[in-house]
């Protein structure tokens, strides 16, 4: 039986879903760089980097208020993305981390910070991502 937290996650996921799926969000792609070493080909003597992992989800873009912009931690031009914790295919989205990339609305951003929004400490309903172009 679901509880109020499961319903909160479902409501947040529905609201952050892309407009094509009835939500208020847009398509977002999270790119996580590979932590694996390059693959060495002894026949050619070359090493090929391992491709980064990409995850398609959805998000809503918000602007920081002028009082939040301190010029150091939050800079002019930074955006706040409320990211659904669920990928387009239904699987859980990995937590965005500093150094990851996010593409939203045709603009590529770097993740500066990420705060999971969770009510119980173990049930993320969204990620609040500070992103910088």
Folded structure, characterized:
The chain is mainly beta and 133 residues long. The protein has a single domain (4-34, 48-132), classed as Thrombin, subunit H (Beta Barrel), CATH 2.40.10. The protein is built from one helix and eight strands, in the order αββββββββ. It has one helix spanning 4-16, and strands at 26-32, 39-41, 46-48, 53-63, 79-83, 101-104, 107-118, 124-132. It has a six-stranded antiparallel β-barrel. The chain has a two-stranded antiparallel ribbon with strand order 2-3. The chain starts with a helix and ends with a strand.
Short description:
This protein is mainly beta and 133 residues long.
Topology (elements, then pairings):
Blueprint: H1 4-16, E1 26-32, E2 39-41, E3 46-48, E4 53-63, E5 79-83, E6 101-104, E7 107-118, E8 124-132
Antiparallel strand pairs: 1-4, 1-6, 2-3, 4-5, 5-8, 6-7, 7-8
Characterize the overall form: globular
CATH class: Mainly Beta
Number of distinct helices: 1
What ranges have pLDDT less than 50 throughout 5 or more consecutive residues? none
Secondary-structure element series:
HEEEEEEEE
Overall tally of structural domains: 1
| E-strand count | 8
What structural class do the secondary elements suggest? mainly beta
**How far apart are the termini?**
43 Å
In the CATH hierarchy, the architecture is Beta Barrel
Radius of gyration, taken over Cα atoms and rounded to an integer in Å: 17 Å
What CATH calls the topology is: Thrombin, subunit H
């Amino acid at each position: 039986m679901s509880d109020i937290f499961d319903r909160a996650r479902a409501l947040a996921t529905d609201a952050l879903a892309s407009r094509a799926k009835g939500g208020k969000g847009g398509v977002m792609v999270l790119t996580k760089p590979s932590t694996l070493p390059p693959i060495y080909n002894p026949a050619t003597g070359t090493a090929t980097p391992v491709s980064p992992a990409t995850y398609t989800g959805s998000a809503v873009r918000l602007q920081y208020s002028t009082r939040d912009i301190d010029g150091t931690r939050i800079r002019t031009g930074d955006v706040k993305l409320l990211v659904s914790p669920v990928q387009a295919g239904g699987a859980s989205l990995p937590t965005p981390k500093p150094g990851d990339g996010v593409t939203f609305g045709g603009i590529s951003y770097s993740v500066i910070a990420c705060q999971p929004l969770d009510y119980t400490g173990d049930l993320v309903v969204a990620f609040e991502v500070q992103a910088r172009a």
